[in-house]
Amino acid sequence: MVLPLPAVCVASFGLGVFVEMMMVQWTVAMARNIPPAKLARVSSYDVLGTVMAMPAGALVAGPLGAAIGISSAQYAAAAAIVVASALALIPRDIRTMRGGDPELLPVPEEPTAELEAAVI
Q1: Cα separation of 3 and 46, whole Å?
Q2: How far, in Å, CA of 109 to CA of 104, rounded?
Q3: pTM for this prediction
Q4: CA angle, residues 7, 11, 16, in degrees to nearest 5
Q5: CA distances from residue 88 to 46, 51, 83, 93 in whole angstroms, order as listed
Q6: I need a labelling partner for 28 at 20 to 30 A (CA). Which of 21, 56, 68, 120 fits?
Q7: CA–CA separation, 97 vs 81, rounded Å?
């Protein structure tokens, strides 16, 4: 699995583009499906879980690569990603979630007294 540097750079760029596309979709899905009063907390737990997993993966990758070989460890990591993604589809609510127009809160036409007091 050792590729020339230009191929690694192209693959890394493509991966970066796809990750950012997924992050935009993930952020929009959270904003549409999580009540606004809970969105900050859910987003915080989401980022915390993601960031906490990175050092754990780095700690496991070295010994695993030394034990079974680098190429095998890379394939094992790819398999773990596919399995985790498949497991995320187990809950019926996730599989049946459909996009649609979100319920938007009404926007007041005139500023309320509280807003006017805050501005003054």
Answers
A1: 34
A2: 15
A3: 0.57
A4: 150
A5: 14, 18, 9, 11
A6: 56
A7: 22
What is the Cα–Cα distance from 18 to 5, expressed in whole angstroms? 20
C-alpha 6/C-alpha 9 separation (Å) is: 5
Q: What is the dihedral of CA 100, 103, 109, 115, to 10 degrees?
A: -130
Distance CA 97, CA 118 (A): 40
- Taking the CA of residue 72 as centre, how many other CA atoms within 13 Å lie in the half-sphere pointing to its CB? 7
Count Cα neighbours of 92 within 13 Å in the Cβ-side half-sphere: 0
Residue with tokens 């980022």: 47
Any idea which residue has 């989401």 for tokens?
Answer: 46
The CA radius of gyration of the chain, in Å to the nearest whole number, is 22
Q: For 45-80, what is each residue's pLDDT tens digit? A: 988 988 888 898 889 999 999 999 998 998 998 999
